[in-house]
Amino acid sequence: MLNRKTVLLRAAVPVAVLALTLSACGGSDSGTADKADAGKSKSEPQKAEAPSKELQAGEDATSAFKEDDGKITYSVLAQKVDVGTEAETKKLVNDPADAKGLVPVVAYVKYTNKAGGVVSKYPGVGDNVEIYADGTRGSVLIGAADDAPGCESDNDIENWKKGQSHIICETYMVPKATKELAVHWAANDDDEDPYIWKFKAA
Questions:
Q1: Are 107 and 133 in contact (CB under 8 A)?
Q2: What is the structure's pLDDT at 98?
């Protein structure tokens, strides 16, 4: 899964940055994509889908996650995905040519602190989300989801107590002809099978 974002990276991003992992022809290699630095985009090798823990719509997953304050047990639920238009890509990337033929997808994921204590600030649980389009991982956009309606910035969440929920979003770019979207979340790294929620793209 993706590495944890830092506060400095968030502060440095004036617009969303596209970390390209898709090609128009759909070819792929193994590997993972890190989020690119502000103002830069680069091609990254694609990663094959791992064996899944597929969940039904409205079904949540319960898992422990290591925060800076200790191990917290969360319930995690991908509530929905919002698919944008190709025209919107010009507002989301530094170089619109990098996003030709792609549309933005925002995944809304609800996290509830179930046990383990208080998360004082900067929770990392929302960092481990990826969006797949027809079985191939999309291209992450840094910072784009922070302004989406109904989404919270993890940088603004403090003193997250047991029983409280927050909706943290992630934005990816996918081919505009995509038929099925899948939201992946895992508590750890690539060695752990992700939980998966699937949605129709249209």
A1: no
A2: 83
Cα dist from 154 to 88, 103, 190, whole Å = 24, 24, 22
For residue 179, what are its two tokens? 């038929």
- CB 155, CB 10: distance < 8 Å: yes
Residue in 183, 178, 170 with CA at minimum distance from that of residue 16: 170
Q: Select from 135, 184, 144 the least CA-distant residue to 22.
A: 135
DSSP 8-state assignment for residue 116: S
Helix (H) or strand (E) holding 132: strand 129-133
Return the residue matching tokens 């994509």.
33
Q: Write down the H helix ranges in the chain.
A: 7-12, 89-92
Is residue 147 helix, strand or coil? Answer: helix
Please give the DSSP secondary-structure letter assigned to residue 88: G
Residues in the chain: 202
pTM: 0.75
pLDDT digits (tens, 9 = 90+) for 164-186: 999 999 999 999 999 999 999 99
What six digits make up the tokens of 17?
């940055």
CB 180 within 8 A of CB 201: yes
Q: Which strands make up the sheet holding 17-19, listed edge to edge?
A: 17-19, 139-142, 165-175, 102-115, 70-83, 61-67
